[in-house]
Amino acid sequence: MAAEAGTFLLASPLAGGGVRNRNGPPAAGLGPRSPAADVGRPGAGRRGCGSPRVRVAMAVDITLLFRASVKTVKTRNKALGVAVGGGVDGSRDELFRRSPRPKGDFSSRAREVISHIGKLRDFLLEHRKDYINAYSHIMSEYGKMTDTERDQIDQDAQTFMRTCSEAIQQLRAQAHKEIHSQQVKEHRSAVLDFIEDYLKRVCKLYSEQRAIRVKRVVDKKRLSKLEPEPNTKTKESMFSEKVSQNPSKDSEEKPITEEYPEKIPAEAQPELGSWGDGRGEDELSPEEIQMGLGISSMASGSHGLEGNWSQNLVPVLTAANRSPCEAAVTQRPERKRSALPHALKSGAQRKLCSRGTLQFLNHLEPVVSFV
Amino acid sequence: MVGVKMAAAAAASIRERQTVALKRMLNFNVPHVKNSTGEPVWKVLIYDRFGQDIISPLLSVKELRDMGITLHLLLHSDRDPIPDVPAVYFVMPSEENIDRMCQDLRNQLYESYYLNFISAISRSKLEDIANAALAASAVAQVAKVFDQYLNFITLEDDMFVLCNQNKELVSYRAINRPDITDTEMETVMDTIVDSLFCFFVTLGAVPIIRCSRGTAAEMVAVKLDKKLRENLRDARNSLFTGDTLGAGQFSFQRPLLVLVDRNIDLATPLHHTWTYQALVHDVLDFHLNRVNLEESSGVENSPAGARPKRKNKKSYDLTPVDKFWQKHKGSPFPEVAESVQQELESYRAQEDEVKRLKSIMGLEGEDEGAISMLSDNTAKLTSAVSSLPELLEKKRLIDLHTNVATAVLEHIKARKLDVYFEYEEKIMSKTTLDKSLLDIISDPDAGTPEDKMRLFLIYYISAQQAPSEADLEQYKKALTDAGCNLNPLQYIKQWKAFAKMASAPASYGNTTTKSMGLLSRVMNTGSQFVMEGVKNLVLKQQNLPVTRILDNLMEMKSNPETDDYRYFDPKMLRGNDSSVPRNKNPFQEAIVFVVGGGNYIEYQNLVDYIKGKQGKHILYGCSELFNATQFIKQVKCVFHLLLLTYPKLL
C-alpha cells in the first residue's frame, strides 16, 4: 500500500455517466469540492477501466457500477415514459437547484484562512534550510542568511501567525450567528479547531527552527564558560556576545577566540539583541534554562503554554508585543526586544527582498484587511 | 525466521487490518498518509448501529477527530443540512437504510456523498439509490460507492464476534430452537456466512475448513465453502487475487478454519472463572470492550447486607492502548490485584521525583549550590516535564483498574466465587472432591441461586454416569430450596440424552488448581485490595474441549473425536466431500469459530494454549459472546420451546 504523498486536488466526480480511467491520477484542475486530500495511488486491481468493479486492497469500488446503474435507470425510465429528474443530463437542473442555496460564507472564509496558513508554511519551509544553516558565514554570498534576515523572518512569521489567529477568532465569533442548528454549530466549531490545529502545526515549524537558533547561542555561552580565565573572559565573552548579535555583520558563528573588540562596529554597540545583558556570562540564568525548556516543551506540545493556545496568544501579544514562541524565549522581564535601527532595517529588508520576502510581505496585506 | 515473522504479522493483524480499512474509508477511500503539515480536511460520518458497533472498539472519538470528522451521526436520526461538507456513510445495505439515504439525497443534506456498505449491496438496491439520485438531480454528488466487506466486529487482536445488533438472529436460542423452519434456518446461516466471508476477505486468506458432522457448524461450513469457491472462480471480481493478499504471507501457508458447534461443550459457558477479563465479563456489565460500573460509596456489598447509599455510574473502555489491561487480562485475579498495587507504588515514586525536581527549580538563584545543580537537573526536568502526559495516563489506568478490580473483588467475596471456581475445576478434571456438592448448594452464604445452578449443571454434564434417582431428587430439592429454577437442568438432561456423548467433554485434563494459601504479599503490604479470605488460586493449563479439538486438527493428530470431521478446500477444483485431509503438515495459523456463541473463558484457554508454541497463532471467533447468566436465559427459552413443541418430552 505504498502511496506517494502528492498534492493533487481531489477531482470532482464527472457529471452523468462515463467510465473513468482509474489507473492514472485523478484529473487535476477541476475545482475542489472539499479541501484537498492527499491522494496516493491505491493498490487497485489489475483490472482497469473495463470492469465496473475495482479492487482496492480489501474493499471494492463499485462507483462505476453505480454510474452504470444510473444509466440503466435512465434508460428504463425513458422507456416507461417516466420523467427523469431535470432533463437529459440533469446538470442544468442541478446548477439551478444549487444556486439558491447559501454557498456558505463560512466555508469560503475558512478556506481562505487555510490557504494563508499554507503560504506561511511554504515560506517557512522554503527558507528553513538557510535559516538553520550554521555555516552560512563560510558559504557563498548567495547561500547565506544573516542574523538580520533571520530576525526579519522571525518577526514576519510572528506577525503573520498573530493575524491568522485573529482571523480564526473572528470566524469563531461569527460562526454561530444566525445559525439555529446545533449540528451546524458543532460542525463549525470542529472546523475551526482543525484550522487552529493547522496553525499550531505550522507554528511548530517556526518554533523548532527558532529553538535550534537559540540553542546554538546557549551552547556557545556554555562553551565560553570553559575558558581558563574567568575575569578577562567575562569581558571578552561579553564582546563576543555582542559581535555574535551584530546584525550588520555576517560573522556570527566564528569561534570565540577570534573575537576582538575592533570587530565591533560602533553603531552596533547599543544594539543588544535578545540575549547578552551585561551580567556575568559564566552562569546560565534560570530564564535561559527555561528558554531551552520552554521551547522543548512547546515543541513537544506538552506543558507550559498548553490549553487554549490561541486564547493565550492574543493577550500575550497585546501585553508584551511578543509572540508566544518568544514568550518561551524568556528574557528578563524588564527588557524588551529593541527594534532594529532604521538604517539597518532597510538594509536588511533589501537583502531579504532578494529572497522573495517582499512578495511575502505583500501577501500580508489582504490578510490584515480580512475582517 | 522469516516464516515466523510473517505468520506473526498476519495473525496479529485482524484488528489492524480492519482499522486500516476503516481509516482508508474515512479518508475518502484512499490510503491514509500522515503529514504533519498537511491542510485539514473535514467531513461528517453517518453510520447505522451496525457501523457504530464495528467502529467503536477500533477507533476512539479522538481518533475520529484526527481523521477530520467533525460530526458523527446515526443514520436514523434527525439531521440538519450542513452545506459544503462531504459525508461519509457506513451502513448495512438494508431496505430501510437505503430509503433513508435516498431521502438524504432528496433533501440535499450534504455537499457530496461517499457511500460505504458494510457488506455487499445488491444490484437492485444500487439501482434504487441511482433512481433517487436522479430524481434529486444529485448524481454528480455521489462521489464514491464502495462495498467494504467489514461485517464483523473485532474486539481483540485475535478475537472477533459476528455482530451485536442482530445477535438475536444468530443466537444460541435461534439456532437451537426446535420450532425453527427451514427458511429461517437458511437466513440464520446466510447471516453467519456473510460475516465469515467478510472476515476472510479482510484477512486476505482462503482457509482450509474443518467441521464436525451433523451440526449447525456443518451447515455453515458447506455454505462458506460454496461462497468462497464461487468467488474464487469469478476471475473478474475475485476478492482474493495476488495483490490483495497480505504481502504474500499466505502464498505458502494457508490458515485452518475450525467450525464447531456450541453443543459440543455446554459446561464452559457455565463455568466460573478466575482470570481478569473473563471475570469482568462474568460478574460485571461488560460489552464490546466497555465495562459499566455502578459505584457504591463506602458501604460493603454482602448478600444480606445493607444497600449502598449512593450509586454513581461509570463506564470504562478497555482498549488496546491500555497497557495494564493488555498485560493482565488473562492473569489470575490475585496477580491482577498485586500488579495494580505495584503500579500504584511505582507511580507514586515517579510523582515524588517530579515534585522534587520542581521544587528545586523553584529556587530563584540565591543559592550557589542550587544554581550549579540547575544545569544538571535541566535535562532531568525536561524529561520529567515531557513524561508528565505518560504519568497522567498511568494514573488514569491505575484508577480505572482499581475501580474495576474492586468491583470484581466485591462479587468474589460476596458469592465466594473462588470456592466455586476451585470446585468446578476439580469436577471437570475428575479430581477427588474434598467437599460434598450438596454442602455447597445448601450453604446460604455461598453464591447466588444461579451460581449453585451453574455448579450443579457442570457436575451433571461432566458426570460419567448420571446420578441415581434418589441422589438427583436430593439435589433438586436442595436447589429448589436455594431458590433455583430447575428448567435449565431439564434442558441439560435432554441435551445429554440427545447429544453424541461418545467422547464426552468429560476429560478436561488431569491437573488441578493449587491453592497458594491465604496469605499473600497483597495482604501484607496493606494494599487497596483486602483479599482476606480469598484463596490465592493458581491456574494450571488444562485444555477445554474446543482447545483440544483445535489441537488435534492443527497438529494433524489422530483422535476419534476429530477423525471424521469434514474437510473443505475452496481452492480445490473439484467439489470436495471427502474427509481425507490433503494437507499433511501441521498448520501455523488457525481460526476457531464457535457457531452458537462463545465466551472469554474459551478464548483465554486458546490464548494460553498457543502461548507456548513458537510461531503459531490462533484467532477466536463466535456468533455471539455471552456470560453464564445470558446463556442460562437462552437455555431456559429453548427449553420452553422444546416443551411446547414436544409436550410429551417430559
TrEMBL record, chain A:
<dbReference type="GO" id="GO:0016020">
    <property type="term" value="C:membrane"/>
</dbReference>
<keyword id="KW-0175">Coiled coil</keyword>
<dbReference type="GO" id="GO:0015031">
    <property type="term" value="P:protein transport"/>
</dbReference>
<feature type="region of interest" description="Disordered">
    <location>
        <begin position="225"/>
        <end position="284"/>
    </location>
</feature>
<protein>
    <submittedName>
        <fullName>Syntaxin 18</fullName>
    </submittedName>
</protein>
<dbReference type="InterPro" id="IPR019529">
    <property type="entry name" value="Syntaxin-18_N"/>
</dbReference>
<feature type="compositionally biased region" description="Basic and acidic residues">
    <location>
        <begin position="249"/>
        <end position="265"/>
    </location>
</feature>
<comment type="similarity">
    <text>Belongs to the syntaxin family.</text>
</comment>
<feature type="compositionally biased region" description="Basic and acidic residues">
    <location>
        <begin position="225"/>
        <end position="239"/>
    </location>
</feature>
<dbReference type="Pfam" id="PF10496">
    <property type="entry name" value="Syntaxin-18_N"/>
</dbReference>
<keyword id="KW-0812">Transmembrane</keyword>
<keyword id="KW-0813">Transport</keyword>
<keyword id="KW-0472">Membrane</keyword>
<keyword id="KW-0653">Protein transport</keyword>
<feature type="domain" description="SNARE-complex protein Syntaxin-18 N-terminal">
    <location>
        <begin position="61"/>
        <end position="153"/>
    </location>
</feature>
<feature type="region of interest" description="Disordered">
    <location>
        <begin position="14"/>
        <end position="50"/>
    </location>
</feature>
<keyword id="KW-1133">Transmembrane helix</keyword>
Automatic annotation (TrEMBL), chain B:
<dbReference type="GO" id="GO:0005801">
    <property type="term" value="C:cis-Golgi network"/>
</dbReference>
<keyword id="KW-0653">Protein transport</keyword>
<protein>
    <recommendedName>
        <fullName>Sec1 family domain-containing protein 1</fullName>
    </recommendedName>
</protein>
<dbReference type="Pfam" id="PF00995">
    <property type="entry name" value="Sec1"/>
</dbReference>
<dbReference type="InterPro" id="IPR027482">
    <property type="entry name" value="Sec1-like_dom2"/>
</dbReference>
<dbReference type="GO" id="GO:0009636">
    <property type="term" value="P:response to toxic substance"/>
</dbReference>
<dbReference type="InterPro" id="IPR001619">
    <property type="entry name" value="Sec1-like"/>
</dbReference>
<keyword id="KW-0472">Membrane</keyword>
<dbReference type="InterPro" id="IPR043154">
    <property type="entry name" value="Sec-1-like_dom1"/>
</dbReference>
<comment type="similarity">
    <text>Belongs to the STXBP/unc-18/SEC1 family.</text>
</comment>
<keyword id="KW-0963">Cytoplasm</keyword>
<keyword id="KW-0813">Transport</keyword>
<dbReference type="GO" id="GO:0016192">
    <property type="term" value="P:vesicle-mediated transport"/>
</dbReference>
<dbReference type="GO" id="GO:0032580">
    <property type="term" value="C:Golgi cisterna membrane"/>
</dbReference>
<dbReference type="GO" id="GO:0015031">
    <property type="term" value="P:protein transport"/>
</dbReference>
<comment type="function">
    <text>Plays a role in SNARE-pin assembly and Golgi-to-ER retrograde transport via its interaction with COG4. Involved in vesicular transport between the endoplasmic reticulum and the Golgi.</text>
</comment>
<dbReference type="GO" id="GO:0051223">
    <property type="term" value="P:regulation of protein transport"/>
</dbReference>
<dbReference type="GO" id="GO:1902902">
    <property type="term" value="P:negative regulation of autophagosome assembly"/>
</dbReference>
<dbReference type="InterPro" id="IPR043127">
    <property type="entry name" value="Sec-1-like_dom3a"/>
</dbReference>
<dbReference type="InterPro" id="IPR036045">
    <property type="entry name" value="Sec1-like_sf"/>
</dbReference>
